[in-house]
From TrEMBL, chain A:
Gene Ontology cellular component terms for the protein in this record: cytosol
Family note: In the C-terminal section; belongs to the phosphoglycerate mutase family.
Single annotated GO MF: 6-phosphofructo-2-kinase activity
Gene3D superfamilies: P-loop containing nucleotide triphosphate hydrolases (3.40.50.300), Phosphoglycerate mutase-like (3.40.50.1240)
Gene: PFKFB4
Name of the protein in question: 6-phosphofructo-2-kinase/fructose-2,6-biphosphatase 4
TrEMBL record, chain B:
Pfam families recorded: 6PF2K, His_Phos_1
Keywords of this entry: ATP-binding, Hydrolase, Kinase, Multifunctional enzyme, Nucleotide-binding, Phosphoprotein, Transferase
Family affiliation: In the C-terminal section; belongs to the phosphoglycerate mutase family.
Gene3D superfamilies listed in its UniProt record: P-loop containing nucleotide triphosphate hydrolases (3.40.50.300), Phosphoglycerate mutase-like (3.40.50.1240)
InterPro entries: 6Pfruct_kin, 6Phosfructo_kin, His_Pase_superF_clade-1, His_PPase_superfam, P-loop_NTPase, PG/BPGM_mutase_AS
Classification of source organism: Eukaryota, Metazoa, Chordata, Craniata, Vertebrata
UniProt protein name: 6-phosphofructo-2-kinase/fructose-2,6-biphosphatase 4
Originating organism: Anser brachyrhynchus
PROSITE patterns referenced in this protein's UniProt entry, alphabetically: PG_MUTASE (PS00175)
């Protein structure tokens, strides 16, 4: 229900909305349909693009939020792109000299910065109006009411719904930590020592402070926004207009920056894995049970604070968790992808019985849905509550399945839909994900218990008329 | 992942955050506290979190048999203050019993709680008992909204059963005045260490502070999605399908001849209703899509609206299920809500996958949902506050539209049969649900089919 377009006719999921042939009632209070003014206003229906506008002093986490939000929206299928005005500035002004560029009376600096903002907005317009983007995140300080009004008018002219996200933080420790995490390594400070960089950056923040106009409950009461205070201690939410804004607010209210790690792994090798069969609800093989013990040992050695353990409701993940000897929580939505009519078959049998389906799956593995089963796309939708809860939690170990793990990994590592179904998630290997700066550090730990390979690469020939041999070429070995 | 206890060993669930939650309503009279309490309680129970609301006004009505006038609430009325405090303590005592002895998860303490002193008393009570306290304040200054609230829920109150509308309104306005002088709203600075949501002007804006855990996060999300704009929700099933005719469950069949007739009748009905900005939702199964197609308007397909997956029993008749899986058939009759078809789903699973639909229904205004029998039962149970035991037996016949209109604290239901005959697909719970019952006993309540 998220995407606007559905490529295949196979499973139509969207609004089947015709383009309006006549002017509709305005959704924005105070605007007059048909009035000829300086700005022409475009029609806005419920599926009109959203322009998210970040607001806040430097080092308040705007880019962190922009990137994270963009990653989340893309993962759930809402085409989103972020536009970082600082990046436009770096592309234009090849070498950063000092904070003086940002002084409020630096005419040259102001001119360049305005130019960059407009260039970015132009790219936003292209993305949302010409390239079928749904959401654009405009990442800049946007600290004056004047600047925000300019952007709001831009949104109105183009038929976008504008939603502001402001981050307000006065805790000097948080700001210092942000500077260490993401500013010291910035291209702006590549030739500076850490102390020089920090000093310059603090002065840069000062440049903005005098003219900073925070979103105000009274003056800005007609705008749609969320104001995040002190990294999520409290929030002020005003005039949420539609579903996507409601989801964005929910997401932003659930993320945090407390250091932690997420451990992802599959169940131990199962009896059906050994035979090269997919799906089913088998128990662990001998080696799978060994892995479970190794996992218990690994977890102990890691000495993780308050580790939560989650499994699916299938035997093989539960058996794996049992060996850990700690409480764990079972989620039905973590169950492996349902292969429908192909459950418990080998790839050879699928080729034998459903050669057409087999080829169609190779053509579009992300969207392809097994007859009476699921697609990766369906998986992502059912895993969304898991992602939301993973964001809320701190240290978590998720014992799941190959397709499920691919979906979760794609979220954390920002992998697009085309790559997702081919991510390598081998048995008996734990992936430790630690959020760092704007992304995620990944450590891959093989727990030294041999297992079959269950990874089938995309074959060269995905045509429906391919030979049996061509279809099965990439199938991994099995009993 | 919600429930703390799992009766069957069938699917064990350990609950991690197992501290009871005490939700404390805050606000002047006629600000929607009871509306929010009841709605939130209904939602939490539907998603499987045992919740109960405790309305202090009700305790007062039980104690002081006859309401005289607003003077009871005057701040210097010693007798009144004494009784009101007594009621609050009685309610808190029942809260403690529910959360600590009866395995409740969430208690909603519905009273004005307008002074910081009263809120501190309650917070301490929560701490002493190991509850997490979360405040929900409703602030509203719009006189139109307050007047509308009074009309909706106060005029019909037992307090005003012998008064005219004008007398009741006048008295109630004076009652509100009694609270105003001592009202201390939740303050960003003074109350910065409390967990709360402050709802302003019926949801125009919210202030959220220190959300502590998952359940509070869900409560906040829910409260931020509900609204009070008048609207109606239309629920119906697809038209009669080919498999319905044969008494077979599940599958992905097309409409029968009568089913197609129903689709046309539905189109006509919808036109006649002249509904403003109606959204139409279907599942991704042929029979609902074919039904919607006849309407000639845009519609949205939701996979999560698909019928319950009957697993190994898909496309069987009840006779065949009895033939092939007599044990499973009996187990299902023993606990139809939690029973999961082998390789299929339970009603409980359905509720979990339908939660986003409910959330979106709350956000929307006029919506027509064309779905399936089990799905419709789940949605109906949410709106009509039916418990898990009754949910799988709610009557949702084919070719009948249920029009739900929120009113006061609940939902008005109109049932409209669109005059196209269809088979009955409702199977009541048989008398004998034992695993050793006879074939005849098992099949006694199966409706007729070809």
């Amino acid at each position: 229900m998220w995407g606007r377009r559905r490529p295949q006719g196979r499973h139509r999921r969207d609004f089947i909305s015709p383009e309006p042939a006549f002017l509709l009632e305005s959704e924005f209070p105070g605007t007059n349909v048909g009035r000829r003014g300086r700005w022409t206003r475009k029609l806005c229906m419920t599926n009109c693009p959203t322009l998210i506008v970040m607001v806040g002093l430097p080092a308040r986490g705007k880019t962190y939020i922009s990137k994270k939000l963009t990653r989340y929206l893309n993962w759930i299928g809402v085409p989103t792109k972020e536009f970082n005005v600082g990046q436009y500035r770096r592309d234009l002004v090849k070498k950063y000299k000092s904070f003086e560029f940002f002084l409020p009376d630096n005419e040259e600096g102001l001119k360049i910065r305005k130019q960059c903002a407009l260039a970015a907005l132009n790219d936003v317009r292209q993305y949302l109006s010409e390239e079928n983007g749904h959401v654009a995140v405009f990442d800049a300080t946007n600290t004056t009411r004047e600047r925000r009004e300019t952007i709001y008018k831009f949104g109105e002219e183009n038929g976008y719904k504008t939603f502001f996200v402001e981050s307000v933080c006065v805790d000097p420790e948080v700001i210092a930590a942000n500077i260490v995490q993401v500013k010291l390594g910035s291209p702006d400070y590549v030739d500076c020592s850490n102390d020089e960089a920090t000093e310059d950056f603090m002065k840069r923040i000062e440049c903005y402070k005098n003219s900073y106009e925070t979103l105000d409950e009274t003056l800005d009461k007609d705008l749609s926004y969320i104001k995040i205070m002190d990294v999520g201690r409290s929030y002020l939410v005003n005039r949420v207009m539609d579903h996507i804004q409601s989801r964005i607010v929910y997401y932003l209210m659930n993320i945090h920056v407390t250091p932690r790690s997420i451990y992802l792994c599959r169940h131990g090798e199962s009896e059906l894995n050994l035979k090269g069969r997919i799906g089913g609800d088998p128990g662990l093989s001998v080696r799978g049970k060994e892995f479970a013990k190794s996992l218990a040992q690994f977890i102990n050695e890691q000495n993780i604070k308050d580790l939560k353990v989650w499994t699916s409701q299938m035997k093989r993940t539960i058996q794996t968790a049992e060996a850990l000897g700690v409480p764990y929580e079972q989620w039905k939505v973590l169950n492996e992808i349902d292969a429908g009519v192909c459950e418990e078959m080998t790839y050879e049998e699928i080729q034998e019985n459903y050669p057409l389906e087999f080829a169609l799956r190779d053509q579009d593995k992300y969207r392809y849905r097994y007859p009476k089963g699921e697609s990766y796309e369906d998986l992502v939708q059912r895993l969304e509550p898991v992602i939301m809860e993973l964001e809320r939690q701190e240290n978590v170990l998720v014992i799941c399945h190959q397709a499920v793990m691919r979906c979760l990994l794609a979220y954390f590592l920002d992998k697009p839909a085309e790559q997702l179904p081919y991510l390598k998630c081998p048995l008996h290997t734990v992936l430790k994900l630690t959020p760092v700066a704007y992304g995620c550090k990944v450590e891959s730990i093989f727990l030294n218990v041999e297992a079959v390979n269950t990874h089938r690469d995309k074959p060269e020939n995905v045509g429906v008329d391919r030979s049996r041999e061509e279809a099965l070429r990439t199938v991994p070995n099995h009993l």
